[in-house]
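Give me structure tokens for this 340-residue protein.
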Amino acid sequence: MHKNPANALEREENTLSTEIAGKIYIKRMKSLMLDAHGIFNKDILEGDFYHYFKTFIKKKEKDDIETPLYISAFCHLKKWRPENLKFKHIDELFLAGFKSYLKSANFIKSKTNRLKPNSQASYYDKIAAVVHHAFVDRYLPEDYTLRVQRIPNEASLAEKLELEDFEKLNATPYDDELVYRSSVFAYLSGFRYSAIEAFRWKHLKYSDTLNCSYVYLIDPKTDRPIKHFISPEAVDILGERGNDEDPVFADLTYYRVRKGLQKWFKAAGLENKARFHNWRRRYASNLNYNDVDLYVIKEMLNHKKVSTTELYIDVHETTKAKAANKMTIRKEIPNGKENS
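Here you go.
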């Protein structure tokens, strides 16, 4: 505002500014009134979803959470919808349309290589996660992710680690001790890479009552707290305890892990299985091999559904043979003899 307008133009600018300020005031008061009464403010739907997405990614990066998959999902969304995308465009039809796009899309840097089913599932899940958070942040009137089924993951037998594979890897020289220690910890604990990256020394605790160590932190994938018990061997592989706020696996990056695993697994003749997530799958299968109840395994993996846990478990031949040997038509009788 011009404090002492010198001419007609400045007086007109003051009048215009006053009108604009009045409209902003009314809009803000309306928003506060709606919020106070728990009513969704439809004006928010005009907001820029892409701007919200970028802010979401920056917050993840600030929290030291890996974001490459979010960035890739963002790039695919921009490729599918290059024009301005507002919150009012987000609904179940939008999510279903993005699913259809992914099923026929190529990798961002390729004109011929189609996205694999698990990549499709991963990118859709990342978009769905952002849409869900937009609902939680009250940018959307509904959680539309509940109306659309996610793209299912496909289990690949060729990529699974067998029980004997760890012995091969353990007998194979490795160049990066940090990658080795984080891998062994994941093998013994079932932690995702994102949880390992978020792991600080303050999260490692001990229960005198249960005589067992555990890790208590917020799972970066689910945003839910987990209290995860771990074995003495898993604690030993962590090394000497540092300061509370220090990362347990300092200097570990996703790129370093990926390159380190590729080199290590290739030397062991297991190149096609060089995925960090395979440690988590092997952990689930090892628990099953040791007759741990499926529901307990579900809780140990922090899964919401048992059906998800079932996808992780690979039943070893020893377990199958043990089950087969229990089948009989002979019946025990009190004197110890058998009837056919």
